[in-house]
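@channel sequence for tomorrow's demo:
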Amino acid sequence: MAAPAADVAPGGRRQPGPPPVAVRPRRVRSVDAAVVAGYLGLAVLLTSRQWGRPDRLFHQDNDQMLFEWMLARAARAVTAGENPLHSAALNAPDGVNLMANTSVLGLGVPLAPVTLLFGTQAAFLVAVVVSLAGTATAWYVLLARRLVGSRVAAAVGGLVCGFAPGMVAQAGAHLHMAAQFLVPPILALVFRPGTDRVRRHGVALGLLVAYQVFVGEELLVFLALAAGVFAVAYALADRAAARRLAPALLGRLGVGALVAGALLAYPLWFQFLGPQHYQGMPFHARGFQLDAASFTASARQTVLGDGYVPGLLSPNPTEENSFFGPGLLVLAVVVVAWLWRRPLVRALAAVGLLAALCSLGDTVRVDGASTGLPGPYRLLAGVPLLDLVVPARFALICVPVLGVLVALSLDRALALAPVGGETVSAGTGSGAAASSGTGSGAPASSGTGSGGGATADRPGVPVRLLWGGAVAAALLPLAPTPIRTVPTWPVPAFVADGGWRAYVPAGRTLVPVPPVTGAGVSPATFWSARTGLAFTAPGGYFIGPGAADDPTAHWGAPDRPTAALLRRAAETGEVPVVTDADRRQAVADLRHWRAAVLVQGGLHRGEAVRRTVDALVGPGREVDGAWVWDVRPLVG
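structure tokens (generated this afternoon):
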């Protein structure tokens, strides 16, 4: 988080600090370029197991299929001028409300050239790289410009913020949670130390908030909650600064709300009241909570991680948001105690502690056993919007809190510079301005926060080495490993090469078999993504209403009887008894879907599904790696 202003002691007394320094021109230094290149290189390394491998997907393959489809849909909206908030390519004949799903238009539209030139898999991997490296870079810039004077401290802080275990876990599946590069600039505008140009910065804030909605709304909810807690905690720690800065802060928020509200009025109406809108969530969000023991455990995607323990302490591999290990948590406690006099540190501690507690859900569990103790999430479960978020993701708020604390501590240790056999404190603002990047020109004077500079009998170099070693010991076990991949069935040549076009006239659909919800069972979403939404299909992997007259959230389209029959065959591997009534229902369902051809590609237990379709509509034939049933004579 960004500090509202240069730290002062409670009561308005300024902490001892270095003399003001002139604001230097902001130019990209070689060290800045090296840091960003390092972030990019690490992000590429983490995605290395999938580059050039169309037969592999990240371990949570359903979600990658969904986001590949969303990137393809964004590219189609750009090139064809279609409504970016709705698509008829899936869930025929009703379509999908994209605004009510994680459409990541904020990523998909800029990446449209990549999607069109290199395909959805490449676009997804680029999005993962941009999300991780971009988040780390954004925090690095904020730290270097606003909070610390050492580029080393800023680089390490950015590394934690962008590549913590929770970030890597989310990146392999949930682009909307991993793409946090707008969070630092939003915070920089909200908590800007200057009190001038309120309207200009309010407009910029509104634009960024509106853009964040099209990247991920859930992340914006977490950001608003964390910023609110931070503001209250900082105000309690430094009432004088709060009184001085509150009018400008409220002014920026007001202008930002007006700008964002004007830009988002129609999209939000479409989301909550437009076609295929829904209410609630299709899963029990409260069940996605973290075990308290997870905070000291090692995540799967780290050098010390394994595939067993994390599965006991988190809902699934994508929600390992709290696996910080004991070293980093102990380090954070030491930093908070060391720099406790700084209002910034106290506010960060409040945010991190509350977020960690909320991630434990309704009832606290330790090592898989319920303690019976109520979690503070119970107080939020009934609050609109907050009742829709996954409790386990509150722990993601702890990631930047820990990153900033690590950066502040390194900057403080490096500030103990030896001079002529003695040491002096260079302060945390040495050589850095407190300017937020918006032209305030205010000098940095954050002070040491520990009661002044170092004394002559405390050598600076040992402190640097000791603290640097402690930080390294805490962070090295969290070093991420390349994101795991799993094999996937390739798109059959009949679909990929366009052989289906001879069967599907305008206004009709290609029905992937089985046409059910869940990308792992029905290939509709994956085939559609990899072919650039070349055909229209029923079903798919998305969230929609349970029925035309029931807005309750439901995964995918409501089941038609034929879809349910084929799903049972796919799940059990057994061919059900097919009656004449089933055949008549199949024809009715095919007419509802406006089907022209049924296509089955590679599928686990596919033989049972194929025989079931044969019994329903007659024998199919193998064409270019797929089983094909031409149903045009049946549906007319």
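heads up for whoever presents: The mean pLDDT is 88.
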